Every structure is written in structure tokens, then in C-alpha cells.
């Protein structure tokens, strides 16, 4: 509808060839207030009123019960369409029954423009008397036709118990509603509770799958009442509490000729402030959105599992995980019996299906790669979680295995229908890129470490040389003792012991250097931060001593262990120490000291603080020193501190630089302590 | 036994101190070990010590500063440097301060004992069993 065609429908019809003038069906156009705008010749023939008498008059003029028309009109505008039998007044003041179909027509902006009604004389039931006709009842009923043949024995058993004065548990009624099958529903019912499945998919299903949980037991009672009633057409009514779908619904159940066929009518106003039309428009938009959403979505009906969980909970089971260990068949049952009821396009694409039909089967195929994931989903539902999310894998129909992020949204009991939504996001590529990035970062960190070792060659050589010198001297001394006429075995034994000790020391040092140079994947292990610091200082002892710098360490007693990679943490500390040695050296005069402080913070973290007596960090640089390629040194790439920061971040911690109030730079990192 | 020469060893590394002292003992010399320059200055017996073996790099006062201090105090005790330091500047300074020798760690016993003998003088050198 183009925005230009804003003229009234009557004007439009009278200017165009008046097609409706030749229709054999009554065609009436009302404005949104119910005023007649157009009245075709067939209407005149049907009702006996000429157009001149009708155009500009209200619908109430035709109505047998004008008071009801107001409510009907409101609902019609809200819901957009209505079809049914009405009683209309004729000039002779008799009433005729007319089958009418009314449609609201809308403007481009979604607001109602007018109402077009097609009417035809109803010959089925003859004329209705005005007083017998209850418009609101018929208008507002969401109707159901159900078959209880399969539940007959249960009806009989409940009836027997009732007659015997026994109380009947809700569970029996719930089972009855589960056993009752839908034969037919009207459009309103399909709209209110059918969800995306629509009317056709409701037929043949269990009534319980669509009836709000809150009132299922009451419906069960009414079914027994109606099924065991002595006369057919005897109605059984109950007022229900608002259920989020209808406000104060009134349920009426009665039996027809066939004793297994019951009819249910639910009257009530839709419990939604938005008009039906905007609701339908938004629903259509929503459905489209869902359909084209780049995330693969599955709608799953796990209602029968919900009942099983309730039973298990009723037995006092709280640790469902342990329960599933003992009853693995329950996971198999869910895989084999929980049906997928709807999927979107992305889901079909992800699994390589030909159409949605390929995916509309029990959920087992989603968990072919990981039954554990299904188990987790079940545990989440049992625990009453709102949702559950995990990384898992799926195998597609064409055999590809994908890494996916699975998210499950559980139904919000009890107002919503029992619909669980699964979304699967293919993260295969993302995980691959993440792994590559991690590798790149590890390589980079390693390269920086090797380059750092290069700068420490002198210090390291000195460190290894010390025990070697001791070993050589001790060995030569031993030979002297042995070459004597009376070899001094006691002395030689002592010297050999010292040789072994020094050799072990040299070996330890080599081991540490090898560790630093190694390209092992970072690992997470519990470690003593004090030890890590001591080892890191070893790498720099020569530098520190040759620059006559004093190291003051305060190690905390009984500190909890850190969780991390020993080599990488050492790298951080060595890096910070090297910077400080250079800073102290740069200053030249005054106190030459680096103090190291390790302590446990009361919030479950370990704090390492290094402070030097160098010139401090220029204030304008403080915010930039952790950026890559920032350097104030003539040699050096400026990656040291950037790598320190990335290592500490990888450890779930943080690092900060500041200037101490009493002078010198201060670096502090905080990493989480183990448990 | 006043005739046995006394050698002082200054090194912050205990393993080195012990090894050198044992070598000196087997060569028939007496040894007095100190873990720092300060400890040596405070504890050695001037006039009684015949030679000093010192490391260069040590926490606190280093070997060169020790040498300088000793010379400033008028001591002409023979000094043998045994160190891992390779810096030619430091070596030249040690020479200028009258160090007898500069030996690199690990030091060979022959070289060390030869320098010690030269420092102490063959007259006082013991004819120990190993010699």
C-alpha cells in the first residue's frame, strides 16, 4: 500500500471499477469506529437495508445485541481478523443468521485503516433468536477439540477413586492431560499457545504440550467431569487464575456425541497490552529475525523430561550429577526422545541438512560428539538454571566436526510453554586463530627471553665459572694428597664431596639457563614466589655485584603458592631487575639499592614489589612504559615491559609502575594465589 | 711454626675459599680465609700475613678498592688477584696498584703456586711433600 493512497476505501471503491458491486456475497466496509463506509448490492439483498440507509451508520444498528458489539469491535481491532456466525437485524425486525468474515486492513505504518466484512446467509442452523446469542463467549473462546480415547482407563480409574471418596493426586490429572490428544483447535488457540508450530503441528499432539502447566491439573479434573457426565453437552466450568496468556480465563469443557471427543472453550482477554496486530507484526518480524539470524538456533520440547526431573526431585535427589552416573540410561532417553520442534536457517546450514525437516528429530544428533554436553544441559535444567553455556563439539551430517559454543535457554516455568532454545555458534575458526595467537605470543615471549639471556651472558658465565673454579682447585688438591707417600684418604674424601657439591651447583645453574632458553609451552603449576624471585636474582648476581648494588629482599613467611609458569615469572622478575640495575647505574651517585618485597594480600593474591634507588620514571612516560616498542634506552627494542605485562595478564594478574614518594621507580605485580 | 708462610684468601664464594685454603695447606702453607674485604681489613694479622689472594667482584668493597685502601694505608703486601673478571681496565688498575699477578678463574694450581712462591720468596717457601 503506497502512502499516497490514503483516501477512504469507499472513495477508492467508487472511483475504481466497483468490483464488489457485482459480488454475490455481502461486502461491507466499516471505518475503525464501526461506521459503515460501503455497502454493496449483495448486502442490500441479504439484509434488506438499502445503501442509503446504511452508509454512515454504526454496526450496532445491525446488531441484535448492540452492547456486545462494542467488545467485539475492540477485539477485532486487536486481533485483526474474525470469522463466525452473527445474528443481524432486518428491516422487518426479524433476525437472520449470517456467516461473516471480518478483516482489519492496515496502513503502511501498521495502524488500522478500515474493516472489510464478507457475509453470507447461514442456512445450517436457521435463524437464531437475538437473546440466545452470546457474542462475547463465542468471540473470545480459544477452542479445542480433544480425544481422550487413549486416556480412558485413567479417566475410569480416577472416577472410581473419586466415587470412593479418595483424593486424587495432581500427578494423575497431569498424566491424563498428557494422554489427551489434540483433534482440532481454532485459530485463536493456535495463536495463543501454538508458538511457532502453528495449528497443523498442534494436531495429534498431547494437550499437555500446549496447556499452561499451572492449570493442567484443573483441566484434567474438568476432563474427568465432562467425560463421565451423564448427559452430553453438559458444560463444566472453572475460573482459572491469569496465566500470562489470558487474563482470568474461564474454561468450559463439554462432551459431544462421541464419548471420547471433548470440547474445550477458554474465554478471556489476551493478557498483553499491545494490540494483537502489532503483536503479530512483531512476531513476524521476530520470526524472520530468528530465521535469518547468523546464530544457529534449535527449539526443543523437553517437557516430558521436566516431568521426569520433577519425579526424581520428588524422590529427594539433589545431586543430579551422581544420579546420572548411576542412571546413564536417562541421558540416552533424552537423546532419543526429546524432539527438536523448530530450527532456523543457520542451523540447517551448520549441519549441512537439505531442509529443516532433516533437523526436526530427537536431539541425540546434536550430542554425537559429546554426550557429556547433553548431560550438562540436563543437569542445568534439573538445577533450575536460566541458561547454560559451554564449549563443545558437534558432528555435522556430512561428517565435519566443529568446535561450537553451545548456549541453552531453559523455559521459565511455569508461565511459558515448555520450550528450550539451543544456540550453537561455530567457533572452530576463532579457536584456531586464538591458538595461533597464543603460539605467536609464546614465541615472542621466548624470543624476548633469549635476547635477555644474551644480555646476561657475562653474569651467567661468572655464575657457572665459580663452581667450576672450585671443582678444579679441589681436584688438583686431591691429586696432591693422593700423590703423597701416605695418601690422606680422609682429606680426599672431603674434597671429593666438595667437588660433587660444586658440580651439582654448576649443573643447577646450567639447568636454569636451559629453562630460560627453552621453548616449552607455558604451563600452570603451583610454585613458591619466594623461590622464583631468588632464582631470578641468581641470573643477575654478577650485574648487581659488579655495579655494587645492594639487594634487599623481604620474603614473606608461609606465603600461599602462586599458580603459574616458573620460567615466565622469572622472566618478568629478571626483566624488572635488569631495568632497575640500569636505572641505579644511570643515577651514579647516592644509595645503590634494589629492594624486593613479596607478600600475600588478604584478598587471595600475591604481591611482588620492586623498588630501586634510580632516578625514577619521568612522569610523562609512566602511562606508556608498558606499551610495546617504548624505550628510553639506546639499545633495546622496548619490548621487555610489554612482555612483562602480557605474561602477568596471562597469569590473571596486573602490573603497575609508579615512582616511590622517597625517590626511585617502583614496579608492582599482583597474581592470584592458589585457592 | 713461624716459618710456615701465611696466605690470606678473600672471596665471597665459600666453595672457592675452602678449595683455595685446602690447596694452600697441601702445599704446606697456612691459610686465613675472609668472606669480604671488610672482614679481611678488620681481621687479618698485619706483618704476619705473607700474601693476599683476592677476588675482584664482591658485595660491599670490591678487590680493587681493597687493594687501593691497603696501598693508601702503606701496606705493600704482595697481592694475587684470582677472578672471573676479564675487564682490561680493572686489570691495568690492579697492576698500577702493584698487584703481583692477575689470574683468571678457574685457576691452575701450578700457576697459582708459582705466583705465590714468587710473592713469598723461595727462601721462605716450604719444601712440602707435594713440591
Please sum up the structure shown.
Chain A has 675 residues and is an alpha+beta fold. Chain A is 42% helix and 23% strand.
Give a structural overview.
- The complex is a heterodimer of chains A (675) and B (131).
- Chain A is α+β, with helices and mostly antiparallel strands.
- Chain A has 22 helices and 22 strands.
- Chain B is an alpha/beta fold.
- The longest helix of chain B is centred in the first third of the chain and has 13 residues, at 14-26.
- Chain B is globular.
- The interface between A and B is medium-sized, with 30 and 25 residues.
Whole-Å distance between the termini of chain B? Answer: 19 Å
Share of residues in strands of chain B:
15-25%
How many strands in all of chain A?
22
Structural class of chain B: alpha/beta
Low-confidence spans of chain A: pLDDT under 50, at least 5 residues? 1-17, 126-138
Using a beta-carbon cutoff below 8 angstroms, give the protein chain pair with the largest interface and the number of residues from each chain: A-B, 30 and 25 residues
Q: Rg of chain A to the nearest angstrom? A: 42 Å
Amino acid at each position: 500500500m503506497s502512502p499516497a493512497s490514503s483516501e477512504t476505501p469507499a472513495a477508492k471503491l467508487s472511483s475504481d471499477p466497483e468490483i464488489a458491486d457485482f459480488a454475490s456475497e455481502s461486502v461491507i466496509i466499516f471505518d475503525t469506529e464501526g461506521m459503515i463506509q460501503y455497502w454493496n448490492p449483495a448486502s442490500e439483498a441479504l439484509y434488506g437495508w438499502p445503501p442509503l440507509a446504511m452508509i454512515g451508520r454504526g454496526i450496532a444498528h445491525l446488531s441484535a445485541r448492540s452492547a456486545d458489539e462494542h467488545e467485539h469491535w475492540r477485539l477485532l481491532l486487536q486481533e485483526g481478523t474474525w470469522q463466525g456466525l452473527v445474528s443481524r437485524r432486518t428491516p422487518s425486525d426479524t433476525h437472520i443468521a449470517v456467516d461473516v468474515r471480518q478483516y482489519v486492513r492496515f496502513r503502511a505504518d501498521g495502524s488500522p485503516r478500515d474493516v472489510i466484512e464478507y457475509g453470507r446467509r447461514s442456512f445450517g442452523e436457521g435463524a437464531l433468536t437475538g437473546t440466545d446469542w452470546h457474542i462475547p463467549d463465542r468471540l473470545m473462546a480459544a477452542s479445542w477439540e480433544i480425544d481422550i480415547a487413549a486416556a480412558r482407563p485413567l479417566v475410569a480409574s480416577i472416577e472410581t477413586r473419586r466415587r470412593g471418596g479418595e483424593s486424587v493426586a495432581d500427578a494423575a490429572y497431569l498424566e491424563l492431560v498428557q494422554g489427551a490428544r489434540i483433534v482440532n483447535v481454532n485459530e485463536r488457540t493456535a495463536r495463543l499457545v501454538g508458538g511457532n508450530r502453528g495449528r497443523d503441528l498442534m494436531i495429534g499432539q498431547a494437550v499437555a504440550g500446549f496447556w499452561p502447566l499451572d492449570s493442567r491439573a484443573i483441566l484434567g479434573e474438568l476432563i474427568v467431569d465432562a467425560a463421565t457426565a451423564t448427559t452430553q453437552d453438559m458444560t463444566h466450568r472453572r475460573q482459572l487464575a491469569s496465566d500470562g496468556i489470558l487474563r482470568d480465563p474461564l474454561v468450559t469443557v463439554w462432551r459431544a456425541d462421541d464419548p471420547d471427543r471433548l470440547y474445550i472453550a477458554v474465554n478471556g482477554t489476551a493478557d498483553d497490552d499491545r494490540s494483537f496486530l502489532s503483536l503479530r507484526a512483531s512476531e513476524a518480524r521476530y520470526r524472520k529475525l530468528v530465521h535469518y539470524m547468523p546464530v544457529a538456533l534449535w527449539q526443543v520440547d523437553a517437557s516430558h523430561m521436566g516431568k521426569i526431573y520433577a519425579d526424581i526431585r520428588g524422590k529427594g535427589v539433589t545431586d543430579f550429577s551422581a544420579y546420572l552416573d548411576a542412571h546413564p540410561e536417562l541421558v540416552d532417553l533424552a537423546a532419543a526422545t526429546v524432539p527438536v520442534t523448530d530450527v532456523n536457517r543457520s542451523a540447517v546450514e551448520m549441519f549441512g541438512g537439505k531442509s529443516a525437516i532433516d533437523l526436526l528429530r530427537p536431539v541425540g544428533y546434536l550430542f554425537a560428539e559429546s554426550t557429556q554436553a547433553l548431560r550438562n544441559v540436563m543437569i542445568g535444567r534439573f538445577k533450575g538454571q536460566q541458561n547454560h553455556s559451554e564449549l563443545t563439539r558437534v558432528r555435522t551430517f556430512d561428517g565435519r566436526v566443529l568446535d561450537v559454543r553451545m548456549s541453552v535457554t531453559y523455559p521459565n516455568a511455569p508461565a511459558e510453554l515448555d520450550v528450550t532454545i539451543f544456540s550453537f555458534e561455530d567457533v572452530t575458526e576463532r579457536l584456531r586463530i586464538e591458538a595461533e595467537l597464543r603460539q605467536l605470543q609464546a614465541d615472542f615471549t621466548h624470543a624476548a627471553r633469549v635476547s635477555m639471556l644474551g644480555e646476561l651472558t657475562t653474569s651467567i658465565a661468572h655464575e657457572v665459572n665459580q663452581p667450576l673454579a672450585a671443582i678444579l682447585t679441589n681436584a688438583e688438591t686431591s691429586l696432591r694428597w693422593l700423590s703423597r707417600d701416605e695418601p690422606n684418604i680422609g682429606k680426599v674424601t672431603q674434597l671429593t664431596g666438595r667437588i660433587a657439591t660444586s658440580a651439582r651447583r654448576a649443573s643447577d645453574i646450567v639447568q636454569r639457563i636451559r629453562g630460560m632458553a627453552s621453548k616449552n609451552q607455558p604451563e600452570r603449576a603451583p610454585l613458591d614466589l619466594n623461590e622464583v624471585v631468588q632464582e631470578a636474582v641468581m641470573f643477575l648476581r654478577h650485574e648487581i655485584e659488579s655495579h655494587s648494588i645492594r639487594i634487599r629482599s623481604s620474603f614473606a613467611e608461609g606465603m600461599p603458592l602462586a599458580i603459574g609458569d616458573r620460567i615466565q615469572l622469572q622472566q618478568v622478575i629478571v626483566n624488572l631487575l635488569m631495568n632497575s640495575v640500569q636505572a641505579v647505574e644511570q643515577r651514579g651517585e647516592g644509595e645503590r639499592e634494589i629492594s624486593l618485597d613479596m607478600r600475600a594480600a588478604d584478598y587471595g593474591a600475591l604481591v611482588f614489589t620492586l623498588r630501586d634507588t634510580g632516578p625514577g620514571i619521568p612522569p610523562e612516560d609512566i602511562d606508556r612504559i608498558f606499551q610495546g616498542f617504548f624505550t628510553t634506552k639506546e639499545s633495546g627494542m622496548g619490548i621487555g615491559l610489554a612482555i612483562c605485562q602480557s605474561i602477568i595478564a596471562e597469569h590473571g594478574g596486573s602490573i603497575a609502575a609508579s615512582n616511590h614518594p622517597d625517590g626511585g621507580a617502583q614496579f608492582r605485580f599482583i597474581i592470584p594465589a592458589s585457592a | 711454626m713461624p716459618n710456615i708462610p701465611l696466605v690470606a684468601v678473600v672471596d665471597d664464594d665459600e666453595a672457592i675459599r675452602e678449595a683455595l685454603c685446602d690447596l694452600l695447606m697441601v702445599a704446606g702453607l697456612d691459610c686465613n680465609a675472609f668472606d669480604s674485604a671488610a672482614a679481611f681489613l678488620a681481621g687479618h694479622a698485619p706483618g704476619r700475613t705473607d700474601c693476599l689472594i683476592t677476588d675482584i667482584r664482591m658485595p660491599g668493597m670490591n678487590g680493587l678498592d681493597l687493594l687501593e685502601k691497603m696501598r693508601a694505608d702503606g701496606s705493600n703486601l704482595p697481592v694475587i688477584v684470582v677472578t672471573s673478571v676479564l675487564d682490561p681496565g680493572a686489570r691495568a688498575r690492579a697492576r698500577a696498584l702493584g698487584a703481583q699477578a692477575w689470574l683468571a678463574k678457574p685457576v691452575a694450581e701450578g700457576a697459582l703456586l708459582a705466583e705465590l712462591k714468587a710473592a713469598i720468596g723461595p727462601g721462605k717457601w716450604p719444601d712440602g711433600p707435594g713440591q
